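Researcher: Let's try something more involved. This one mixes different molecule types, so please make sure each is placed in the same coordinate frame as the others.
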Amino acid sequence: MLKLYSFGPAANSLKPLLTLYEKGLEFEGNRLNPAIFEHHQDWFKAINPRGQVPALVDGDKVITESTVICEYLEDEYPTEVKLRPADSYGRAEMRVWTKWVDEYFCWCVSTIGWSRMISGMAKAISAEEFEERVKAIPIPEQQVKWRRARDGFPQDMLDEEMRKIGVSVRRLEDHLANQEWLAGDMYSLADICNFAIANGMQFGFPEFVNANDTPHLLRWMAQINARPAVQKMYAEVPMERLETKD
Amino acid sequence: MLKLYSFGPAANSLKPLLTLYEKGLEFEGNRLNPAIFEHHQDWFKAINPRGQVPALVDGDKVITESTVICEYLEDEYPTEVKLRPADSYGRAEMRVWTKWVDEYFCWCVSTIGWSRMISGMAKAISAEEFEERVKAIPIPEQQVKWRRARDGFPQDMLDEEMRKIGVSVRRLEDHLANQEWLAGDMYSLADICNFAIANGMQFGFPEFVNANDTPHLLRWMAQINARPAVQKMYAEVPMERLETKD
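Model: All components are placed in one shared frame. Result:
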């Protein structure tokens, strides 16, 4: 059976979780605890040496990178539910949108999210324990991010990321004002991957996402949240606890 | 007939150029002149509002983003030459590598390339003309990059990008030490997209790419450079001139 290693249903972990639910594929879910750096522990680095979730295990194969996992599921499991447009141009549009999430949208939201939510976690442990944990992180840029979570992100970086969040929200709103879905006239991985980052921004970033400024973005999020697969996923997959003890 | 708008055969422009040549697809090539900011001129922004090359025009459709264009050509033109592994796992591996180019490898090489080569171009024009041209750039981050090219990139940014180039080269070398091609046991878009950035680094970055440190990376580049489609492309598509007058 497929095995998914992930955090709770948010951000990059939400992408393959929702894809699996939409396609009705059975899988064994393994939720890691980010608060104890579980994804940097040796047992998990034996699965993904980069120490990143999500990771999908399919027989003797390990597939990494959330967007790549989603396309893999479409390639390997041609269920009746299709999450990729059938035509080449629709697929290209879809990939422009998933690529944009991975290269722009997710980063600005992630940095603000870390400074608001991961900082507490990083500060809650002793300096010695923190250093031990940082040492176990395979990607240098992730080490830097954890240190910033503990020591504070530079204000000019936070300001710049907030600017980019504004640009991102505007881009989505403008596009969704004219189209029901992001790409190819159908609900696709473009919507799933953007929804993974956007959902909840009406609460976390109400200055950007609200009924006055982004009615179409709200309409699109409500439509996705109303889907049976989405409701089933949120009902069944608990959010991760951000506690520092196992 | 397919129309490609690009710079010369290097970096992101090389990806679709080589894909078209490898697949033997006929196309009309339109080379823009970056030295006069031709890609930010209104006629081109009518084709790609983001003012970026490459862009592919196929009938009434415009496809943007170099990696997306490559996958589009595979989806839409199933020639005998295949540049994507047939199996889902091979495709996933290929996408991990093309994604890595777009999110990491291309950026560090690009920043150093800009500081070495585009700077002269940005400094060669008057302050007034420069401001006019910057105003025409639709993407704010690209405006910043052009300003840095003129005023100088911060040294700590250049140092960090050089560090990342070292990481990138090591990653390629380690992988190519064990595999002939990057993904799926075949020459694929993973190789084309990485080659687009890596080729020539033995001259531009000999401290990283040389016979002692990266024999397998050199072997791989030589193999690709020896391919008939690559030789034909370099023979037929001229490098762009970096002159400031048309």
